Amino acid sequence: MAKVFISYRNSDDPSAAVLLARSIDERLGEGESFLDSKSIPLGVDFRPTLWGQLAKCVAMVVVIGPRWLVPDADGERRVDRTDDFVRQEIEFALQIGIPIIPVLVGGAAKPSDGVLPASLAALEHRQYLTLRHRSADRDLERLLDQLQELVVASNGPGTGAKRSDSPPAAGGITFNGRVRVGGDIVNGSKYVTRYE
Questions:
Q1: Can you give the residue ranges of the TIR domain (predicted)?
Q2: For a designed S-S bond to 182, which of 52, 88, 192, 196 qualifies (C-beta 3.0 to 4.6 A apart)?
Q3: What is the DSSP letter of 117?
Q4: Burial, 77: exposed, middle or buried (Cβ in 10 Å; 0-12, 13-18, 19+)?
Q5: Residue 195 included in any domain
Q6: Residue 38: closest CA among 12, 17, 66
Q7: How many independent structural domains does the chain possess?
Q8: Which contacts of 158-162 are long-range, i.e. CB under 8 A and separated by 24 or more positions?
Q9: Is 189 inside a domain boundary?
């Protein structure tokens, strides 16, 4: 089971996400990173795997590049849409309480206060890492050290409070222990139903 979930935007800087996944797997062991494009088998409904893996991870890395907040062809930022999977992934990670590490790539700046939708406002206050080409080895090492600490802590006995795979949705709607994420209702281990 993967321990580190990597959230990224295909239209932003997906190569950075691939680099991070490869680096995490090299340091922590093959399969310790979850990257949808490499971790989900072809031809299957990706939603159950996506939500189930996120519920079981001990940390999330959010890759933020220069196009992460850029409006799409319709003039709307994807992150402002409730059906945006990147937004839903981060909302779910916030709801279940796992550490979220924003990684800024390609010269991107940290989102300033008030720029993100209210459901993602907590992301603005997370300690972040800037991955720069001139100090990439040092930057990656810092990230990998932190992730390794989180993974090791999650494997040991008495590692602290157990988190629920089905927590109440912060500011969202909870249905009998299930969490509404965008238009999907999930129970932390599988896609349950589409809520319209």
A1: 4-144
A2: 88
A3: -
A4: middle
A5: no
A6: 17
A7: 1
A8: none
A9: no
